[in-house]
Amino acid sequence: MIFTLTENVSLSPTVFSLRLEGPHGAVRPGQFAQVSVPGLYLRRPISLCRWDEKSVTLVIREVGKGTKALRSLAPGSPLDVLLPLGNGFDPSAAGQKPLLVGGGVGLPPLLGLCGELLALGKSPTVLCGFSSKSDSFLTEEFLSLGCDVRVSTLDGSLGAKGLVTGLMDGCDYDFVFSCGPRTMMKAVFDKAARPGQYSFEERMACGFGACMGCSVPTRSGMKRVCADGPVFPGGEVIW
Amino acid sequence: MKDLKVSLGGIALDNPVIPASGTCGFGKELSGWYDLNILGALSFKGTTIAPRDGNAAPRVAECPAGMLNSVGLQNPGAYHAAAYELPELKSFFHKPLIANISGFSEKDYVEAVEILQRDSAVRILEINISCPNVHGGGMAFGTDPKMAAAVTRAVKDVAEKPVYMKLSPNVTDIVSIARACVDAGADGLSLINTLLGMRIDLKRKKPVLANKVGGYSGPGIFPVALRMVWQVTGAVDVPVIGMGGVSSAEDVIEMMYAGAKAVQVGAANLIDPLACKKIIEDLPRAMEEYGIERLSDIRRVE
After folding, report:
1. Domain residues for A139?
2. Is the Cβ pair B54, A222 closer than 8 Å?
3. Interchain proximity A216–B61, CB inside 8 Å
4. Would you call A57 exposed, middle or buried from its count of C-beta atoms within 10 A (0-12, 13-18, 19+)?
5. How many CA atoms lie within 13 A of A89 on its CB side?
6. Are residues A239 and A176 in the same domain?
7. Mean pLDDT of B226-231
C-alpha cells in the first residue's frame, strides 16, 4: 500500500514522528507497520502510535541506516507500507485499572492503547521511563488524553530518579501492558503482582508470518514475533 | 492472448511462477493477501522428518540488494505437515504442490519422502541437499558429487513422484554436482539455494546473525543463479526449475532463456506479499514487449 508522508516531526534528538496518509484496515493497539525504506531491501517494522480512518502516525527512534533514511524523508514523499500487522494488545483483558509501563521508544504503541482503554471507560496509569529529560517524548500526549502519567529518568532530570520499575511501587493496578527494552520488561514482569501483556521486537524479514525469520522460543513453543506477537502474555515469555 | 502455460517434465503448470520454499510457509500467510490459485505451483516450507525449532534470533539481516537468513529449517516435521498443514493448504490451494524435503542423513530424507509423497496433491519431491550430513563430518550433501548422488539414489529408490534435487550454489563446480544427481536418477533439478554470507554489526562488533553465517538471497544473487542455471541446463537433459533473486516478469523470462522450465520466486515474497501475483499479471506485458507469444516456446540461449 502506498501512503503519503504528510508530517515528519522531531520529538527529541533521536526520536521523530511520521504521519502517513492513506486508506487502511482497522488497527488494534500494539500492531505494527512494515515500512519500505528507499535504498534498502528489507522493510522496517515500526509500531503504530496513533491512527484514524485515513492516516497513521509512527514514532521512531533513529538507530541505524533504515531509520536514518526515514528521518530524512520530506513531506509529500510516497512510502510503501504494509499495515496493520501482528496481534496487538487486547484492551479487554484488563480490568478497570490497567498499568502501562513504557521505556523510551517502547512508549509509542502504549499511546494508542491508552486511548482505547480510556474509550472503554477504564482508568489507565502510565509509567514512562527515559534516560534523561533531553530524550523524553510523548509525555504531553499521554497527559492530554487525561490519564495519570508518571515519569522517571535515570539521571533524575525529569520526574523521579531511577528505573521506571521504581514507579510501580505506589501504583494500584489490576493488569499490566508493557513495551520497551527486554531487560526493562523483565523487571516489570518480575515486579508485577498482576498478569500482563508485553510487546517484543525482533529483526524481521516479511512481517506477516511467512518466513520464520523472527521466531523465538516461548513456553508454548516457537512463536513468530511478527504474526503470533509482537504482544505475548507475560507468562508465555521465557524471560 | 499470451500463453503462459509451461510443462515441467510432463506436469502442466498454468504459468511458470512458483513461490519458493521457505518464503511462503504452508501457504496460509500468503493466502491472506491473494488467491494462491493463480500460481503455477507452490513449494512448501522445507520439511524434515523430525520437528525443528531452528536457530536462535536474530535470524535475518539486511544486505545490499537482498538479505541473509539463518532460520535453520524451523518446521513442524513431516508427520505434522502431512496430517495438519497439507490438508489445510489443500482446502484453499488446488494447484500442484512441490514438497521441499531436507535431512541430515540419507535415512532422514527417505523417511520424509515416504510420508510426504502419500499426499496426492504433492506432484514433485524437491530434495534440499544444502544441509550438513551428520554422517559426513557435517559437510553439506550438496557440496560433494558422491554424497549428492547417494542421496539422490536413496530417495529415488522409494520415490513414487518426480525427484528434483535442489542444488547448493556454494560449490566450486555446480555442473559436476548436477551431473552426479542426474546420473543417479534425478528427474529434474532446482537451483539455486542461498549463497552463504555474513554481516557484522559494527556497533556491537559481533555478527548480526546469532548463527553468525546465513544464506544470501534477493536480487543480488540473480546473475549468479542465472549463470548456474545456464551452465547446468547446457550440461544435463532434465527439466530445471530456476530460482535466485527473481523479482520481476523480466527476471522470469530471463531465467527461462537461461534454460529453466519453471521459475521460483523467493525473497521477493517477503518484501512484497503480492510479488508472485504482480509478476504473473505482468508477464503478458513483458512477453508482448519481447515478442513472445508462448512461454513454452522459449529456448535456452547458447
Report:
1. 91-196
2. yes
3. no
4. buried
5. 31
6. no
7. 98
Question: Which position among B24, B63, B131, B276 bears the catalytic label?
Answer: B131
Q: Amino acid identity, residue B202?
A: L
Picking from A85, A111, A140, the residue at the C-terminal end of a domain is A85
A230 and A236 in contact (C-beta within 8 Å)? Answer: no
Cell numbers for A52: 484514524
In this prediction the ipTM stands at: 0.94
B45-92 pLDDT per residue, tens: 999 999 999 999 999 999 999 999 999 999 999 999 999 999 999 999
Question: Which residues in A lie closer than 8 A to residue B24 (C-beta atoms)?
Answer: 210
> Total domain count for chain B?
1
Whether residue B69 lies within 8 A of chain A, CB to CB, comes out as yes
Q: Quick one: average pLDDT of A59-88?
A: 96
B131 belongs to the catalytic site = yes
CB within 8 Å: A205 and B58: no
My answer on whether A186 and A204 are in the same domain is: no
Out of A41, A211, A227, the one facing B218 most closely (by C-beta) is A41
Model confidence at A202, pLDDT cuts 50, 70, 90, reads very high
For the cut 80, the answer to whether the pLDDT of residue B136 exceeds it is: no
Min Cα distance A66 → chain B (Å) is 10
CATH of the domain at B265: 3.20.20.70
Write down the pLDDT at residue B5.
98
Query: Do B155 and B121 meet the contact criterion of CB atoms below 8 Å apart?
Result: no
- The predicted-structure confidence for A145-157, as pLDDT tens digits, reads as follows 999 999 999 999 9
